[in-house]
Amino acid sequence: MNPSDNYRALDALQFDNRFTAELPADSEQSNNIRQVRNACYSRVQPVGFSNPELVAFSREMAAELDLSSESCLTLRFTEVFSGNRLLPEMDPYATCYGGHQFGQWAGQLGDGRAINLGEVINRHGKRWALQLKGAGPTPYSRMADGLAVLRSSLREFLCSEAMHHLGVPTTRALSLMLTGETVTRDMFYDGRPKAEPGAVVCRTAPSFTRFGNFQILTAQGDTDLLRRFTEYTLRTDFNEQRELTPKVITEWFTDVCRRTAIMICHWMRVGFVHGVMNTDNMSILGLTIDYGPYGWLEDYDPGWTPNTTDASGRRYCYGRQPEIGLWNLVQLANSLLPMVEQVEPLQQALEVYSETFVAHRQQTMAAKLGLKHYDAATDDTLTTDLHQTLKLAETDMTVFYRRLGAMDITSDSFKESTNDELLNPLMDAFYQPEQLSGDTLQQFADWLKSYRHRMMQDGSPYKERRQRMDAVNPKYVLRNYLAQMAIDKVEQGDNSLLEELMDTLRHPYDEQPDKEQFAAKRPEWARHRAGCSMLSCSS
Ligand code: AMP
Ligand code: MG
């Protein structure tokens, strides 16, 4: 390809803007804050920035859009995905949604700083909505500015792609741009606002529809539009061609319940904590959406939440995610009630959520432990005991499972081992190795002995067991401190660590001997450093 082909590559994108073509728009055109009625979206233009600059792009996401890596390095790409220039077929808009925030109905929220550019159909016929986050205010910006800072944008960009490579359902990210302008934020909510570099991420997903897009229409009492929006969603996002009947809606809702259960099961597997599971942050497609103050479980503590706003209630802590998923689905069910008219079928769908979660969790736990099959008779106790034991000492969940996989647990060498010898291969997982003494040491050793016993029964040879485990227990996750180090570097104009992390996180289950430093447990200096453990919502 010659340089001008790269320049023109964006013109080859095939737009099919169904959302705006088929759903009603807000009749008001101005970009002032307002309550929007009888509409699913408002048209709005990105503000444009003085000096946008590409920080990074995802070559995998570019390829999904049939864009070459070279075309992502053109000035035009930077202009388009910072919001400075629209392609002729783009039709930018912000959607209207509501939501329950921290358990309370919050009314209209909407895309306050997300501007959808349009939908692209790739060469395989797959639909991708393109959305800029931080490209300026919309009618839904409420008290805020519609902008985003580099730190939160980099975290979203990097984590979306890392989650994709981990096999977790997620929205994706195409690009990360610096805007060349500053954005003022009071990061610690302590009355000391600071100017920070502004940024824009281009996010992508088959659709960005949230539970809250349905909830707002029901709250407004607009059953006609609720029906129309549901019909649109089923047809476009779920390839459902049948006429909208209570039965079809219930079947679809059951599918949403299943998807949500599977997504949360993946979160639990890899130690991801979303941090803000409000119903406006729940994707109808069961994708992880809205990466804000999320975090990765380091020390296995089910009560850990990465969100400082959540620190007192811990509503969104790791261990409560499955339960909150259900709570959110109940809210979605309530918003579908005007169309289904009966509670019972929706109730049954909610039971499917729990059943799906339990079934997948069992399969996942079997794989995490290297078992051929999950046998509730033995393995309910084995997994419950493990989770109790992990809490006794400060244990890095990711390192623990990986090290466990590497132990040839059924070998004769472990038969006569002392407790210390038994634990030795796992010691890297402990933040405070001195905790491994007395009763705690005994309980870890007891668990390992029952695990050994169970594996002997299972009979899988070492290699097979390890492969099974390494395929589901990631070696590399986006540890909170790693993201923060990449942010610090990019703020100093050095993108090399960001790129190195992107590379490493492309193959999270592979051993990468030259990247061992990214697999180690969090260093002590990061324990209480801002951005390395808990985060505020400021972004
Ligand atoms: P969140 O729970 O962080 O995803 O956001 C809750 C709501 O606040 C959504 O409607 C966002 O669009 C909106 N929001 C968050 N930050 C901003 C901002 N800087 N400008 C405008 N709206 C925002
Ligand atoms: Mg949100």
Could you explain how this protein is built, in words?
The structure is a single chain. With 539 residues, the protein is an alpha+beta fold. The protein has four domains: 206 residues, no CATH class; 138 residues, no CATH class; 98 residues, no CATH class; 47 residues, no CATH class. 42% of the residues lie in helices and 12% in strands. It is built from 19 helices and eleven strands. The strands form four sheets. The protein has a five-stranded antiparallel beta sheet. The protein has a two-stranded antiparallel ribbon with strand order 1-3. Strand 4 and strand 5 form a beta hairpin. Helix 6 packs parallel to helix 18. The radius of gyration is 24 Å and the shape is globular. It starts with a helix and ends in a 20-residue tail after the last helix. The mean pLDDT is 97. The structure holds adenosine monophosphate and magnesium ion.
Give the termini distance in whole angstroms. Answer: 39 Å
Q: What is the spatial order of strands in the main beta sheet?
A: 2-8-9-7-6
Q: Would you identify the regions where 5 or more consecutive residues have pLDDT less than 50?
A: none
Give a list of the ligands. Answer: adenosine monophosphate, magnesium ion
- Beta fraction of the residues? 5-15%
* Average predicted confidence as pLDDT: 97
Outline type: globular
Q: What is the makeup of the main sheet?
A: 5 strands, antiparallel
Strands, total number: 11
What is the SS-derived class?
Answer: alpha+beta
The DSSP helix count reads 19
Number of domains: 4
List SSEs in N-to-C order.
HHEEHHHEEEEEHEEHHHEEHHHHHHHHHH
Radius of gyration: 24 Å
The share of residues in helices is 40-55%
